[in-house]
Amino acid sequence: MSRVAGVRRCSRTSCNERAVAILSYNYGDQIAQLSPIQGFVEPHTYDLCLRHSQSLKVPLGWKIIINEISDQPVASNEDFNEIANAVRGVLEDDSDAQGSDANLQPELRRRGHLRAL
Question: Does 66 share its domain with 14?
Fold first, then answer.
């Protein structure tokens, strides 16, 4: 199976499946938590595929909190709003620059990973 850029994979050794859950530990309270995968990577967490998230075992005496996990990651409205706001910000910057510029050549502006002409 080939790796696809931008798709997070399961952290378990020799597993190449797409991750659908994040596993985190709170050692002080002896709690393990499984949450749906997010668009950003948090430190000290593990990405798990559906199979490994369903077969998770925790140490004796620990509690496990399992939030609803589906086999298909779902983009939230928050993700779409962030993208839309980033695009609006780049377009507003471009329109301000064009209004004060007499130069008719389009300028390539870069903001983070987004580009606007």
Answer: yes
